[in-house]
Design a protein that fits this description.
By secondary structure, the protein is α+β, with helices and mostly antiparallel strands. Helix 2 packs parallel to helix 4.
């Protein structure tokens, strides 16, 4: 069963974990209502997307039927990342707040809120930031290039290939075969920073020459690896397909409108989950003003429990679709002369095709179980790391292995350049 943090809180009887989860769900309506799905003890989730369906024929009586082999799938990968907070609590100072137990409780609550804020930011704008190492420029005479790897890649299949086609007239083209793919994608004309898709359209790179010049055809090979330092997950801004983005029609952005919300709802055609809007509070206030101006019975509300004691928070609806608020959405994007633009999402929440959180249950061995203060059903773990070696303090760790997955490109739509 896939539980959102809200549903988890309803069934959580451990007071430590209940307090931690309650600190998290009060931060962001998207994170609070998003379902979380276990991927076991692994650190990634693979799934297949339909790429091509077989053709249906209507033969006449006695006619021969030719088998169809058009059915194809694309393989997509989503990774979980470490979300960890360590805090040292001075033994003597803990007495000022009622003892070590009380000090730990305060530290756990603060850690939960910090962890949630980091995750809430990453699910919107996170970029996995794969490190790219070029192995060979294949005799093209190119000596330097910037390659940015898009979402869906798996560093366990690290080798990517760019097929460079040289044109003496200067109109060079390139194709891309992502790690793990069997074929190259469609050829595109080179411009600096051009986006090139693999045969699997869910995998892409951008390519820009920084040194040297093309002189011949060749295969440029490179490897990808996970950045050793802080590595976020791929957020919604990276997962949304180009065909699902509604760009601003005005040079300086567009005002929010009910027609725009209708367009997003139509683009988000996935039915395997609850459809929701996600927007900044500024945008939601503008939508509410439009609804009030429209008159009639157009404003209802959706109630969602956010605390184990039966508290609830009203979430307004438009056309039966809840409008979730996240102030982690930027209101400082630039469109033309506008520097305060934002974006609005519409997506489905669900494990089968919509947007869902994923978590790994990888944890301590049985021999280390004594370190665990509390464990939750969605991968949250609170550990007593022990006495700090060079200080009179106890170390506390709150951690989770979380990620984000979207199993259908039709499950997310986005409008950009919203004033």
């Amino acid at each position: 069963m896939v539980l959102s943090l809200i549903e988890l809180l309803k069934s959580e009887y451990d007071p430590v974990m209940s307090g931690l989860v309650e600190s998290i769900v009060t931060v962001d309506q998207f994170t609070a209502n998003m379902p979380f799905m276990s991927i076991g003890t692994t650190d990634h989730l693979n799934w297949l997307l339909e790429k091509a369906l077989p053709t249906t024929v209507t033969p006449s009586s006695g006619a021969s039927i030719t088998p169809d082999t058009a059915l194809e799938f694309d393989r997509v990968t989503a990774n979980v990342r470490r979300f960890i907070i360590d805090q040292d609590i001075d033994v003597l100072d803990s007495g000022a707040v009622g003892g070590m137990a009380m000090a730990r409780a305060k530290a756990i609550a603060a850690a939960g809120k910090s962890l949630a804020r980091k995750y809430s930011q990453d699910v919107l704008t996170g970029n996995a930031n794969f490190t790219v190492t070029v192995n060979s420029y294949g005799g093209t005479s190119i000596t330097g290039a910037t390659i940015v790897v898009g979402p869906g890649h798996d560093s366990r299949n690290p080798v990517g290939i760019i097929r460079w086609d040289h044109d003496a007239g200067g109109s060079h083209t390139l194709r891309y075969k992502a790690p793990g793919d069997a074929e190259f994608g469609a050829s595109v004309a080179y411009t600096s920073g051009v986006k090139v898709y693999s045969d699997n359209p869910n995998k892409w790179i951008t390519f820009a020459i920084t040194a040297g010049a093309s002189a011949a055809d060749g295969d440029i090979t490179f490897t990808i690896s996970v950045t050793a330092s802080s590595t976020p997950i791929d957020g919604l801004s990276r997962l949304v397909a180009a065909s699902q983005v509604v760009a601003a029609s005005g040079a300086d952005g567009d005002d929010v409108s009910l027609a725009l919300l209708d367009q997003l709802a139509d683009l988000c055609s996935d039915r395997n989950g609850r459809k929701v809007y996600l927007m900044h509070s500024r945008s939601r206030r503008k939508v509410m003003a439009l609804l009030r101006a429209a008159g009639g019975a157009t404003v209802t509300e959706y109630k969602s429990e956010i605390a184990g004691m039966g508290q609830s928070e009203p979430i307004p609806l438009y056309n039966g679709i809840p409008m979730l608020r996240s102030d982690f959405l930027s209101i400082a994007e630039t469109v033309g002369a506008t520097t305060t633009a934002t974006r609005i999402y519409c997506f489905t929440l669900g494990e089968d095709a919509g947007v869902s959180g994923i978590f790994s249950t990888a944890s301590l061995d049985a021999a280390d179980a004594g370190e665990v203060i509390s464990q939750g059903a969605n991968g949250l773990t609170v550990l007593n790391v022990g006495t700090v070696q060079n200080s009179d303090a106890k170390r506390l760790r709150v951690k989770a292995y979380w990620g984000l997955a979207s199993k259908s490109e039709l499950g997310i739509a986005c409008a950009t350049g919203i004033k």
